[in-house]
Structures are given as structure tokens and as C-alpha cells.
Amino acid sequence: MNHWLILPILLPAMVAPLLALAVRHDLMLARTFSVGTTVLLVLLGMYQLGMTADGVTRTYSLGNWPAPFGIVLVLDRLAAIMLLLTAVLGLFVLLYAINGCDRQGEHFHPLFQFQLMGLNGAFLTGDLFNLFVFFEVLLIASYGLMVHGGGPARIRAGIQYVIINLIGSSIFLVALGLIYGITGTLNMADFAARLPAVAAGDSALLHCGFALLLVVFGIKSAAVPFHFWLPGTYANTSGPVAALFSIMTKVGAYAILRVVTLAYGDLDGPVGWFAASWLMGAAMVTIAAGAVGVIAARSLGQQSCFAALGSMGLLLIAIAAFTPQAGSAALYYLVHSTLAIAALFLVIDAVILRRTGFGDALVAAPSIPHAGLIGSMFFIAVVAVVGMPPLSGFVAKLMILQATASLVAWPWIWGLILISSLLLLVAFASSGSLVFWKSEQVAADIEVRRVPPIALPMIAVGALLALLVCLTLCAGPVVRFFDATAEQLFDPRQYIEAVLGTTREGRPS
Amino acid sequence: MEWLVASAVAAMTSAGVYLILSNRTFTVVIGLTLLTYAINLFLFASGRLAVNQPDIITDLSLPHADPVPQALVLTAIVISFGMTAILLVLAVRGFFESGNDQVDLLGPEEAVAKTRP
Fold first, then answer.
1. Chain A residues contacting B, CB < 8 Å?
2. Spatial contact of B5 and B46, defined as CB atoms under 8 Å apart
3. Is A60 helix (H, G, I), strand (E, B) or coil?
4. Which of A213, A333, A383, A463 has its CA 20 to 30 A from that of A263?
5. Strand, coil or helix: what is A501?
6. What's the pLDDT at A487?
7. Phi, psi of A424 (to 5 degrees)
8. CA distances (Å), A446 to each of A39, A358, A369, A449, B103, in order?
9. What CA dihedral angle connects A124, A128, A133 and A139, to 10 degrees?
10. Which of A46, A52, A35 is nearest to A8 (CA)?
11. In whole angstroms, how far apart are CA A178 and each of A174, A205, B86?
């Protein structure tokens, strides 16, 4: 029993009520607590990542109930990577937000901590129903964050976001009901162990349940045809929240990776993975939809939303290949795209704050204060998002291209990835030169009501971009770690043994 | 018994889906509520239908009701209750801020009037 495992859930869960109740009237104190907690989460994430380096899967039984009966938390390499990524992203988004965004409405910091708690829980849990519960925790916090600051457009988009996710939750419950009805368990490892023994007559029902589960994760990760919520949500919420949400779509991708590799680890075995071609098809349409959306968008915000959609498409292509090599590429791209998209959203928010009266619309406007600094940040973030050399996006794209080369559909996949990169490049080049260069020629002075401070936001964005540079420079060791992670992921026996241990003996069937 | 439960789930699901497809937030909320009722009932069925059986298992050979779906339904009820409350609050606030209770996003001319801080 390793009590470190529950801390990433417990810490924000303790601090959030404290923030909501005790220090609600003192913004400085709330900021201190919130940042302090997130820094602790980063340290905890690093420690846990180091802990998993030995390749042992650690488990934690809540209430000390043995595995298939009680709920387990499982920490393997994949979970540790996601925990650290969440904490790091959370820290820099928070640093950006404490520059004024958290003052626009009530309870930003408690909601933020609850969001982190839900994310950490979703990455740690080893139980499907518990995954549902943590999804709801992170969603209910995200509803609050999404409409933070208010305004008719944001509230309207928030209602849509809540409705879509409520429907998703309903489908999740149906899927869980079907899976429980057939296998009699909701523990992921137990489920994986029982899957080969499912009677042939029941396999159609089980496939139904699994397909519904895939639909839910598809909604979360905004895969076509379940992507309609993403542009409206991201474009209408505030910049820091959109940046934090860049990890939310990854939760869906993580869940697909986790559940499918666990349950269908032996992809060509008797219970072969039946939905691989659907997932690949959906991923390919998603990347195309993202690229077309970026070209068609009429504002910087919309462009970055569709870029986020396209990046999910690319990530899902790598995941849908379901090989260890592609899994490693997917993890590298997951880390890269989360940080890059978040940086892009933050930079665009900094632009919006300064373009009074023009917002993020793609029209020539008088030039903004600090245009040089913000423009350079925008340039670097776009290079990362599009996947141009020298940043890690290029490395990730190369890895994905390599990993998909052995698939039958590789010409289509390569064509889509390369053409969509080109479209993204053209679109962002034109919008960036319009916003930052053409604006120089508009004579009028822009009337900024109150020039917001530049230091802290740019430190936050700069740190995210610096992490991308680190990811590029340390690509060798990082990829080796991701290779080991993918290997662990595609060999689920170890996970199952770690969770079920010896308690499998003498258990009523 | 099976027929009763199955038809109840089917009726509530279809009514719920029909209502969710409308463009007014109030109807959508009613539809979502119906859908969660249907799903709660469905979850019961996943533990197989049993009437008047104990759900504390003392001996597996004796007839019993599966206690796990009951716990799941309880959790699902609490969560859907909270979520519906949130949606209602948002819907009311959306009505007061934009003057109608359409689900659609604001049109281009309304969006121009929106103020981003």
C-alpha cells in the first residue's frame, strides 16, 4: 500500500473547499494557496514519475478493500505522465490567470482545484464506474470555469456544453450497464481478465457496450462526428480556461488508450478489437475538419479552436494504429500538443485583452501595445502547433508518420497529415501577418482602457514554450521513456496482476 | 416483468431524445431528466431483474438480488440531480442575459454585440 498514490486527488480536494469557504474574500491569499497547491502537485507528479521509472505498476486499494470489490487507484507510467502533464499545465495556466482573469467572477480558484482533482482522479482510477464519477467531477468544475466571467455568448455556449456532456454521461451509464450486465465487473483489470471467457452469444451485447464507451470517449476527445461542441466552447470561454481545457480532450484520448489496450491487449486474439477501423476513420475526418476549419475561421480564437480539433485528429490517428511504436508517438504528441495548444490560447487571450473593440477578429486594426513580444510568442506557438521544425511538433509528426507507415491506409494518412499541416501553416501565416504586421499600417491609435500587465502572462506563455524546447532537445531520453510506457501499456498482464494480485483465488464468480 | 421494464425504458428514452432535440432549454432539461430516469431503470436491469430477493448475499446458491447496480443507480441519481440543477441555473441565467431560451449559439449580429473583456 503506497499512500503517495492518493495525494494527487486528496490535495486539491482538501484545498478547494478551503479556498471556497475560508479565503473567499481575500484574493491574494486564494492565489497563494492555489499556486502553492499546484506547485506541490507538480513536485508530486515529478516524484511519482520517478517512482514509475522502475516499471512496476503500483496500486492503492481505497478503504483497503481487495481489488475487484473495492475501488483501486493504479499508478503506472502512463498515469504518471498524465499527472505530471496536468500539474505543469495547471501551474502555468494558473500563473497566467492570476493576472486578472480570476477576478472576473467568483470562485475561480476552488473550481480550478476541483478541475485538477477530477483530472488526476480520472488518470489514476482503475475502475470504470469510478472513471465515470471522476469525469463528472472534472465536468462539473469545467461547467463553472467555462462560464467564468459571464456574458450572454459565453452562457449560451456553456448551456450547449453542459447539455452535450450530460448526454455523454447518460451514454456512459448505458455502456457501463451493458458491460456490467455481461461481465459482472467494473474493475478494468478484472474486466480485461474476464473478457476472453465471455460467452459467444453475449459478445454482440458486449460490443454494443464497448462501442457506446467509445462514443463517450469520442465526445470527450472531440472526434468527428462528436466534435461539434469544441469550437463553440473553446471560442466562447476565456483564454486561460480554454488553455486548461486542452488537457480535457486528452482525457478522452487517454481513456481510449487505457481501456482498449487493457481489454484488447492482444488485438488479434479471440476477442479482437472490433472498432479499430472506425476509430481510424473518425480520426482522419477529424484532422481534415480541423484543417478546413482553420482555413475558414474568421477570428484568431476560432482558428486556434480548429487547430485544437485537428491536433486531436492527429493524436487519435496515432492511437488508432494501436501498436507500441504508434503508442509512443501518440504519447509524445499528446504532451507536445497539450502544451502547444495551451500556449496558443494564452497568447491569443493576451492579444484580445489589448485589441479593444476589435477582439480577435481577423481585420487590420491599430497596432497593440507590446506587439513585438506578443507577436514573437504567437510565432513560436504557431510553429509548435503546426508542427514545423525545429520544435517538438515536427519530431512528433515525424514519429507518427513513421509509426503509421506500416498500415494499409498509409498513403491516405500521410496525405491528410501533410496537407492539413500545410493548410494550418497558410492560415496562421496569413492571420499572424494580418494581426501583427498589417496593423502597423493602420494609423489610428488603439484605445486600450487599461493596459494589462505583461510580465506574468508572458512568463507563463514563455515557460510553456520553453518546455516545448526542452521536449525537443531531450527528445532522445523522453522518447525512450515513452517507448517503455507504450511497452508497458501494450502488455496488460502486468497491470492485471498488479491490480488483482493473489485475490483472484477463492473469489465467488 | 421484463416486458414492463423494457417498455418503460424504451418509452422514456424515446420521449427524452425527442425532447432533447428541441430548441428550447426548458424542454431539453425535461428531456434530459426523462433520459436519466430511463438510464437509472436500465442500470437496475443490468443486475438481472429479481423481485423480493435479499441483496445481502449469505450463500451464493440461494436466490439474491445483485447489490452493485443498486449502488450504481444511487450514485447516478445523485450525479444527474446535481447536473440537472446546474443546467437549470445556467438556463435561467442564459434566459435573463440574452432575452430568450433558445439553445442555439448567438447569431453573427448578436455576437457582434457581445463584449469580451
1. 104, 129, 133, 136, 139-140, 143, 147, 149-153, 155-160, 162-163, 166-167, 169-170, 173-174, 176-178, 180-181, 186, 232, 236, 352-353, 359, 508
2. no
3. strand
4. A333
5. coil
6. 92
7. -60, -45
8. 38, 10, 9, 9, 35
9. 80
10. A46
11. 6, 7, 28
All domains of chain B in start order, with CATH = 2-113 (1.10.287)
Nearest CA in chain B to A155: B94
Residue B78 in contact with partner chain A when CB distance is under 8 A: no
HSE-CB for B95 with a 13 A CA cutoff: 10
What is the per-residue pLDDT for B50? 81
Cis omega (within 30 of 0) for bond into A411: no
The predicted-structure confidence for A388-417, as pLDDT tens digits, reads as follows: 888 999 999 999 999 999 888 899 999 999
pLDDT for residue A505: 43
B87 shares contact with chain A (CB less than 8 Å): yes
- 8 Å CB contact of A163 and B103: yes
How far the first Cα of chain B sits from its last, in Å, is: 58
**CA-based Rg of chain A, rounded to a whole angstrom?**
22
Buried b / exposed e along B59-90 (16+ C-beta atoms within 10 A): eeeeeebbebbeebbebbeebbeebbebbeeb
**CB A169, CB B79: distance < 8 Å:** yes
Q: Which run of H or E residues covers position A372?
A: helix A371-386
How distant is the Cα of A336 from the closest Cα of chain B, in angstroms?
29
- Here the cell at position A436 is 501583427
The residues near B36 (Cβ < 8 Å, ≥ 6 apart) are A170, B76, B77, B80, B84
Q: A-chain residues within 8 Å CB-CB of B19?
A: none
- Backbone conformation region of residue B99, classed left if phi is above 0, alpha if psi is from -120 to 50, else beta: left
Q: How far, in Å, CA of A505 to CA of A483, rounded?
A: 33
Q: Are A213 and A175 in contact (CB under 8 A)?
A: yes
pLDDT digits 0-9 by tens, A372-387: 899 999 999 999 999 9
pLDDT band at A86 (very low <50, low <70, confident <90, very high): very high
Q: Which of chain A's residues have a Cβ under 8 Å away from the Cβ of B28?
A: 163
DSSP letter at A73 equals: E
Domain ranges of chain A: 277-494
DSSP A59: E
Quote ipTM for the complex. 0.91
- The three-point CA angle A219-A230-A10 to 5° equals 70
Look at the alpha carbons of A420, A422, A425, A431 in this order and tell me if their dihedral is positive or negative.
negative
- Please determine, for residue A143, whether its predicted confidence score (pLDDT) is greater than 80: yes
> Exposed, middle or buried, A400 (CB in 10 Å: 0-12/13-18/19+)?
buried
User: A120, A85, A130: which is closest to A6 by C-alpha?
Assistant: A120
- Angle at CA of residue A154, ends A149 and A157, nearest 5°: 145
In a 13 Å sphere around the CA of A110, the CA atoms on its Cβ side amount to 17
> Looking at A78-82, A140-144, A448-452, which range is the least confident one?
A448-452
